[in-house]
Design goal:
Layout: H1 2-25, H2 37-42, H3 50-53, H4 61-68, H5 73-96, H6 98-111, H7 117-152, H8 155-172, H9 180-188
Helix pairs in contact: 1-6, 5-7, 6-7
Length: about 200
């Protein structure tokens, strides 16, 4: 209940702040950021997910065994056991923090349409504050999993595993906005066809 009250108060204060700064955004400068409206629209393509930001995901055991090319029943059994144990621990973290993730998702996605940079900054800080310790906890379990798998896999298999893991983690992270130099190139070359 306290979390919901906190989220509601934050939404009201951010909305109030956005209304007062709304007149300043109407100018040609676009708050001095040099970003075109087209770039702001591309940020809304994927809904933000607090659990993904915190690194919450599960490994598909069969996919890992196939990608890493694990042979032999004993090795498959040991790797399966390690991955399922990791998945269980991550599910436990998700369960214990479900309310926090729901509240953050509501906050982030309600404010994703917000153009006020101060409001966005406040939201990002709140998300980091809540997800940081959770992400660290997940990271500890990843390290533990990697140590177990390093003892089970050959050097070649372990390299494949680490490459697979890195790709999986990176795919969940929200895309960072392009900087002004990169962002201005597509609009100059007629890149406005993307919506």
């Amino acid at each position: 209940m306290k979390n919901l009250l906190l989220v509601a108060m934050l939404l009201v204060s951010v909305q109030f702040s956005a209304q007062h700064s709304g007149g300043r955004r109407g100018g040609a400068s676009g708050q001095g950021q040099g970003q075109s409206p087209e770039l702001n629209q591309t940020k809304e393509v994927k809904k933000l997910s607090a659990k993904e930001i915190a690194g919450i995901f599960y490994y598909d055991v069969d996919e890992v065994i196939k990608k890493v090319k694990i042979k032999g029943d004993d090795k498959k059994y040991s790797v399966t056991k390690a991955l399922r144990n990791y998945n269980f621990k991550v599910k436990e973290i998700l369960f214990l923090n479900a309310t926090k993730f729901t509240d953050l998702d509501l906050l982030m996605n309600a404010m994703s349409k917000e153009r006020d940079s101060e409001s966005s900054k406040n939201i990002r800080e709140k998300v980091r504050e809540v997800t940081g310790p959770i992400k660290e906890n997940v990271h500890e379990h990843e390290k533990e999993l990697n140590e177990i798998l390093e003892g089970l896999l050959s050097e070649k298999q372990n390299k494949k595993w680490l490459k697979y893991q890195k790709k999986k983690v990176e795919s969940l992270q929200p895309k960072k906005p392009q900087n002004n130099n990169e962002g201005s190139r597509p609009s100059r070359s007629g890149g406005m066809s993307r919506q």
